[in-house]
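2024-03-11 09:14:02 DEBUG pipeline.ingest accepted 1 chain
2024-03-11 09:14:02 DEBUG pipeline.ingest length=254
2024-03-11 09:14:03 DEBUG pipeline.predict start
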Amino acid sequence: MSGAAGSDVARRARGFVAAHGDAQQRVRAELLFDAVPRAALDAAFAPIDTDAAALRALEQLDAAGVHEGPVAERAAARLAAAQEADGGWSCVPALEHGAAAALVAGLLAKTRFARAAVLRAAGRRVAASWAPERVEGGAAAAIAAYACFFANTDHEIADGALQWCGRELERGFRNGSIDALAAGRVFALCDAQAVPGARLGADEVALSLAAAQADDGGFAPAAGDVAARVEATLAALAALRRLTPRAFRAASLR
């Protein structure tokens, strides 16, 4: 995708969030473009009063490449305190326990506040759960969770596990069981323009994202819930920030 085309997709998506998002969603969009004073983050992400809120804050900060500061520190401390005896967490009910541990620990590992003991315990939990079957069949959320952990921690089984994640990501993308938004999330969580095992480049995913953008600049079906569409658009912007960094920077200057 050309720089001009990528810049236009990002610019239009930014406009959609500005027009339809709530106050926090607008802050999150501007944070992606480095257009928010870091001091404004505290108010936008307060309060972090549940484990789920802490995880959500880390995910949203990570989308913008923010891995330090008081919000990230509070979220990381809350999640460290919430770690269970087996090394996992219960704040991601949509994922099986091993994948949940992988997602939380992978996000923690990207911050300055990850405790080595927390990551070691999570690593044991992830390794006990991991098997190629966990990511087979287009399991986009599991692929994203395990890829996040193995791409961001120095685990002894990381190389082989990432290869499986990459192969299943490409397989799902090719057969249509994983859409561009879900594929882009994997790239964003890995903070990479390539995933081991996948012959699936950043530009191909970015082109697919551009094709999925609606005429009004948003993502997801135009008849869908507006709040859900704003979240989908923020996810698309987070992916484009990793997939097409030059085009994204150009959009931020407009």
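2024-03-11 09:14:41 DEBUG pipeline.report Residues 3-20 form the longest helix (18 residues).
2024-03-11 09:14:41 DEBUG pipeline.predict end
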